[in-house]
Sequence to fold (370 residues):
Amino acid sequence: MIQLFKPFFGKEELEALREPFEAGWIGLGPKTAKFEKKFAEFIGVKYAVGVNSCTAALDLALKLLEIRHGDEVIVPTMTFVSTAHVVAYNLATPIFADVDEKTLAIDLEDVKRKITLRTKAIIPVHYSGRPCDMDALKKIVSNKIAIIEDAAHACGAEYKGKKCGSLSDIGCFSFHAVKNLAMGDGGALTLNNKEMYERAKRMRWLGIDRGTWDRTKVDKSYWWEYLVDEIGLKCHMNDIQATIGLVQLKKLESMNKRRREIVKMYNEGLKNIDWIETPPEDTNNYKSSWHIYCIKVSGVDRNDLSAYLEKNGIWTGVHYKPIHMYPCYGNKPSLPVAERVFKKILSLPMHPGISDNDVKRIIETIKRFQ
Fold:
């Protein structure tokens, strides 16, 4: 079976875990601090804060920006539900925007139409790993509206030479088991604001002003002392995740390079199939991390194609059903592009472990469909 997604782990990750296991420090500690420093350097920002998921990162980002009841946050409808859920967690209102038919990124014209006096933030999603047009988005919003990058798909992606996660007020990343940089689970915020950085570190650890590792460095007679000035969450990263992440970070560029090689093979092999539209290719301004390779089909049933590929040992997926169509968001706006395109999209297997022969097999199996 050719899996849709799969972490690319080797002996290096397993061997690296020996150190925290032998040291006995596997919670929030020195490996997390080291990963945060290395990841911030990689993204090109001053600070990174490790958490347990991208959902937690997005939730913290809204809290840092003081998003609350009565506020509106614009989100694309075609993304994982976390992007909208975190707005609801903070008692604000998610305002769903349609998507661009070609890129499936947030439709900037629809964003323009939906900005109101209550709009406090916009969360553009770098869908599939391809950066949003951030310069165009910044021209639309005022300085009073914050931009939070949902870079869950975009670890290592670049927009005009700068890494995603460094292009706005706050970037949010996922290190889930199937992401480009995989830890099993985990996430991070990236930012340049020191005050927000310090608060984020407190907020991820219940509002406590010093983590246990930090308290080992102070006067031993007061090692147990800390302050809790506000109620925070329990969502920090741990040193097991961070240890895996440090190894993955060293491999990330080569893993993403392999993804781009797979994309070239897909594009070449599928280009003459008239009922398939392949995703936009990279350009000088857009360098995708290719977390997802999403095709659109016309004149054939997407579900039938998916079932056919599964019968032939090839897993596929759909990313995503528009969030506004779920019952929990009962107010259903009309978002025609997302509603139309959703019926056509299909994600093909994409991970560094796919061989050239696997890609050829996938392409030849698709050609035999119908």
